[in-house]
Amino acid sequence: MSLGRVTLIGAGPGAADLMTVRGRDALATADVVLYDRLAPTDELRSWAPSAELFDVGKRPGHHRVRQESIHDMLISAAREGRHAVRLKGGDPFVFGRGCEEVAACREAGVPVTVVPGVTSAVAAPAAAGIPVTARGINRAFTVISAHDPLSEEEFAALVGLGGTIVILMGVGTLGHTVEGLRRHGLPEQTPVGIVESAYCEEQRVSLTQLDRVHAMAARTGVTSPAVMVIGEVVRLAAEHPATGEATSSGSAAVAQAVAGAASSAMNLGAAPAARPPARPGVRAP
Questions:
Q1: Catalytic status, residue 169
Q2: How many domains are contained in the chain?
Q3: pTM for the whole thing?
Q4: Catalytic status, residue 88
Q5: Residue 282 domain-assigned?
Q6: Which of 118, 153, 169 is the last residue of a domain?
């Protein structure tokens, strides 16, 4: 029997049509598909018509299938000469444990390839019309997981570097994260955006500022999956977030964001910039 293979596919941020063509092509030849909770699955049977389908998705506080068991399932299928696909939300190599699955396959001598996906770290802000970088405003963005509480060293580094902060898996530690950033000097009126269930029917966007985000999240019941964006680029959020428009009010919004970025860069303890204006169709404090 010839040896099969394993393909890791990044399914993108949630919408079926944001999966790559290469990913869909790989699914079409799959014999086994192990899929995650955040991957689009409504049409999975038609995408992989000959495959056995296994839900191995992890939920907060509950892992129905251990990571080591996922490795074993992929390797066993490949050793039977089958094409095993691991379908993961976002990109397999962005907080997706894809590197562990690749390492397990390589150690077992099983051919493995990776099909990258659109990461929610960039796509979720874009769903609200928020760019993670903008000329004259910032030249860097940092993506960090807050699944586990961030350390004081991490807070200091985030504030010291500047730019946009994109936080994934941070709903459960939101209060800790916000207080840590404030404690290390991030101005309290720094704009904040939270995008829940990006590109799904349940998508919701909330805009606020750093010192009000915890209260807003508690009041509106922010839930996972959610991406939090912190920085002056949030001022560029779309007028109607569901459309993914580029900016809220054209050059005026850009100018305000540039001014806010300049103020923060000169002195993190300086007088805060104006609070982000409320926008139609957006939950605000």
A1: yes
A2: 2
A3: 0.84
A4: no
A5: no
A6: 118
